[in-house]
Design brief:
The structure is a single chain. The protein has eleven helices and eight strands. By secondary structure, it is an alpha/beta fold. An eight-stranded mixed sheet has the order 1-2-4-3-5-6-7-8, with helices on both faces. Strand 1 and strand 2 form a beta hairpin. The chain is globular.
């Protein structure tokens, strides 16, 4: 059965999403919603769509600002409260009568954590792939110079010439990050062309960067290498939803201790680490990731 493309008008924002209907739907067929991160689009989840559509209804949006979804120019639209409100309404629109299972990576995970915290009635289970919990991430940004150094690249993205920097030399920065940043994973020419097509959508690069401009944890640039702590209020993001964290331990964006203390905020949380995977573990280890998610959902 083919993937179908749709648009949902959510609070005045048009969100593009694809749907893969269950091959053998039942009255109790559950819905899975996948949220991608930077610098991707719905197609990042191709391996998961193919696997889970056998037994689930699979929904995969382009995040606001990306690919075929609307790209508001206002930075305020990308603030955490607005993102939570937007995606909570999207979930309720997609599945008005039953909670869903949410699987998210990177910026999709940064949205999913508070989304599950403040709208627990919308979700059965939560799966996070290499997206730091906002409380532990803020803690590390405030107290750990190594984490600030690892996050220093963001200053290039939020600079006045950030869009030009990303677009330079036919998106060389994004290609290096994504296509060359993985272990033993090759994108076909067609896959690479589809990513470039998504990046070339009018306003897409600016939309993608808005998430970084609006993030609350970024220290001033002249403090990025500071050795002393600086003031950041650590949010108390508590999640009751059963949660699985899949973590590629060779992620260059986070310190190894980023998951320490997560049980304080997510009591029903299990962590599965992949010692030889990077930030892009859903590309590097699709079969293992799919198996872990499937087992968790079946419990």
């Amino acid at each position: 059965m083919p993937i179908s493309h749709h648009y949902a008008d959510i609070n005045g924002v048009s969100l593009h999403y694809v749907e893969a209907a269950c091959h053998q739907p039942k009255d109790n067929t559950q819905t899975l919603i996948f949220l991608h991160g930077f610098p991707e689009y719905w197609g990042t989840w191709q391996a998961q769509i193919a696997h889970f559509r056998e037994d689930y209804r699979v929904i995969v949006p382009d995040l606001m600002g990306y690919n075929l979804s609307d790209k508001p120019e206002s930075q305020e639209a990308y603030s955490v409260p607005n993102l939570i409100a937007l995606y909570a309404q999207f979930v309720a629109t997609i599945s008005p009568n039953a909670p869903v299972n949410l699987i998210a990576h990177d910026w999709g995970g940064a949205i999913a954590w508070p989304l599950a915290a403040f709208h627990p009635q919308l979700f059965n289970k939560l799966v996070i792939l290499n997206a730091a919990h906002p409380s532990t991430f803020t803690r590390e940004m405030a107290t750990n110079p190594q984490q600030r150094q690892k996050s220093a690249y963001i200053h290039q993205l939020v600079a006045d010439d950030g869009v030009e920097f990303v677009q330079n030399n036919d998106f060389a920065m994004l290609k290096e990050m994504l296509f060359s940043g993985m272990h033993d994973t090759q994108f076909s020419e067609r896959q690479q062309a589809e990513y470039v097509r998504a990046w070339k959508q009018p306003g897409a690069v600016n939309g993608m960067l808005q998430y970084y401009r609006a993030m609350p944890q970024l220290p001033p640039e002249d403090r990025q290498n500071a050795t002393k702590e600086y003031s950041l209020k650590i949010p108390n993001i508590r999640i009751a939803t059963p949660t699985l964290v899949l973590w590629g331990e060779q992620d260059e964006a986070f310190v190894t201790g980023i998951l320490e203390g997560i049980e304080q905020y997510v009591p029903d949380c299990r962590i599965q680490r992949f010692s030889d995977a990077t930030h892009w573990l859903h590309h590097e280890k699709p079969n293992e990731v799919n198996a872990s998610i499937a087992q968790f959902l079946a419990e």
